[in-house]
Give the backbone structure.
Amino acid sequence: MSSENTISSTQEGTSQSVLHRYLKAGSALENTRAQLEALEQTEPVETYHRQMELLGRRLQNDPRVFRDMFIADGTEAVAWEFRQEELGAEFTHVLWELLLRDDDASRVLMRFIWDVPLKLKRKFIRALDRHLSQRYPVFLGLSDNWPAENAIPPYIRDPQLRARDFELVNQGYLGYMNVGYSAREVELLVWLEALRDKQCEEKPCEVGLAEPGRPEPKGGCPVKIHIPQMLSLLGTGRFRQAMELIQSCNPLPNVTGRVCPQELQCQGVCTHQKRPIEIGQLEWYLPQRDKLFAGGGAEDSLPPSDPWLQAVKPPIAVVGSGPAGLINAYLLAAEGFPVTVFEAFHALGGVLRYGIPEFRLPNELINDVVDKITLLGGRFVTNFVVGKTATLEDLKNAGFWKIFVGTGAGLPRFMNVPGEHLLNVMSANEFLTRVNLMQGAREGYETPLPEIRGKRVMVIGGGNTAMDAARTALRLGGDVTIVYRRTESEMPARVEELRHAQEEGIVLKVLRAPCEFIGDDKTHFVRQAMLDVMALGDPDASGRRSPAATGEKEPMAVDLVIMALGNSPNPIIKDAEPDLHTTRWGTVELGRGSQQTSLDGVYSGGDASRGGSTAINAAGDGQAAAREILGDMNLSAGDIRSRVSLAGSYSKLGAAPKTILEKIELAEGIVEFIVHAPHIARAARAGQFVRVLPWANGELIPLTLADWDAEKGTLCLVVQGLGSSSMAINRMQVGDAFAGIAGPLGRPSVLHAYGTGETVVFTAGGVGLPPVYPIMREHLRAGNHVTLIAGFRNDSLLFWTRGDERIGKLQQRYPGLLDVIYTSNDGSYGVKGFVTGPLEELLKANRQGSGREIAEVVTIGPPLMMRAVCDLTRTYGVKTVASLNSIMVDATGMCGACMVPVNIDGRLVRKHACIDGPEIDGHLIDWDKFLPRFNQFSAQEQASKRRHGFA
């Protein structure tokens, strides 16, 4: 047979087979269709179709029904596994992978495990320890004494690495992402921490524990975060809802969660006494997670429109942008109130920014809170010192309905022991302000720091500020020792901060207290501290055992001494408000159970009313004050609109740029600026000064007010280019704006009315003439005779001396009341010599009974000149005032840098030029101890000049 015939026969057989199968299938289909049609008429099948139609509609309306059917089956399978003696390796891996999926099923599993009894939770933790610890080292050993004594800790950077930079030390649970964990894996670590919760009904972490004899419960949360509810939400996988819960109570969780002393608050009363739940870490994890996954979510809180435009609620003024002020501003802004926050510094955050280093609290987190308030319509006015730029009454007159005062307690304490005047003996406030607020350690910033690298640094104190100062000095290269007069167990610092300091290599020297500092006779820098050896006696009022000197002493070599001894309330507002009641400690007095002060409509909280306390207590006070304000509104719609308009204009004017309107070259290197600063011009008085931040990364410079015009809203500042900053300022042009001007600061000159035969003598050296000018003018207005002795180095530095300039115009305006004597060092103008020459002639004439009697002398100018004047007048017994403002840093008393040693009744005490001055009795000043302070940063200044090409 041929191959073609074979193929043909095969094809024919195949066709017949296919046809046969088709016919058979068709017959079967007909039979089946007949059966289906018959069955369709039966009741069971009709019921089935109705049920399927109903299920279809349900699935269309709620697709989760179908999902839940399968989840229910899966959960039952998981429950069966949990009923076994132990969880097997395969099941544990599968379960963990399901949890990692971050879907509805995984959240059901999280809720299932949250709800099972503790013994089953322990079984789950044992399985993680046994079967997953190779993949996750944090699980190794976790099951030992879990949950009471064991937990997964937050991620802490290695001490050897972190001690060399300012990056965050405790990076929380999200820090595990730096070592390869995914965001979902970190979320599960947080969930595992929440699983430790006992779900106790008493809620001690939230409400505290009542103790007999105590008016307030022990521990608990000052801002009333619903901690058990937060843990429940975390334990059941509802992270976003947990975040919303926290933010409804506290807009600062990213801040308070890091700096709150949890061991004394929520965690201090946790029922897990040996290993409390990491409540603080969970608190600040949530906003960080929110930023990671959802960009922060601040937009969710946006009001329908700007509350300043709505004008349906009256405006609120918040004084101070620390934790108390920020939470108060946020809560009121969220309720639709137009809010303006007035801050004395150029940067917001108060103690959170100037006092806490970035390795503990990154500045970006403070900025996040500020951004939230801004999104709610809140406004901020920086470089505005309430009590100086405006009083509380001024703010009320500007339309603000209620005022919250959260100015903190920033006046540093010192020891009052011999040698405190030496160079490189400073407060922790000054040191931290230079580093944190003024960024002195960063490249390109102008604020000088002490030389620290390789130097011996002593930090005195045992609180959190001492830890911050010590750890900051360590990161700047210092060899740091903390000296504390009690033992380690009495130190009030947070346990974590002390432990971190010791891990980083900081030495702790306890039962020691400095009794004297000894310096180099030539350089005047501190070189040694004498320490009293202490012993603990009976408990004091705080319950801690009191230290007492044993009589034994020991020396300690030092190059830099930083005092972290706590702070007192700043007196600026108190001094400006005579009707504001304060306690004997200087804190604002509050009504019982209220944040209300003695002034109507004025509330306070935080350190301003507590004294030195904590950020979380301050936040709680701000929250409590907000609640009081919310419940106290009874104004007409018209009154509200009027107030909002007034306060809005006032706020905008305060925030307006401090623009240079006019620049006048007075003499070689001396420039006069006319600057727009309406609020300061309105408040300025003779003898006061301003604090100038020329540009964002510049240093704070005090400049005495040469003149002002309240109607035009301008200031007159005269700058002599001596250092790199002043030289750079003199390069600024009309139209440029200073980064900030704060003031007027200091106490105004005290004027007395003198007789016709008396005169007030002013000695002005160089650019001492501009600050002398307004004080002299006030004496002339008061009818006092004035004698001006103005000295210049040579005639190239003359200014304001012609008849058509300021001094000449004063002579024309007050004929017979102003005598003027000019001197020059080289005799090129006026009398040859120094201002002391003509002054001595006047004094001698007085002694001989001729000429006008000198009622007082006011001296302003170079420090050596002021000292010479004071030494001269002392021998004649003539009252002499020296104006001192050139050594300040923040100029509000917060840093303590402008320390002036004075002798009162044979005892050396401290005054501060910005708080007690700038005018101080020149005969009380210990000039030998004071003058070297002007040269403390001379080496750094020379380096800055070289860096900027001014050397």
Notes: The CA atoms of residues 58 and 64 lie 9 Å apart. Confidence is low (pLDDT under 50) at residues 1-10, 296-301.
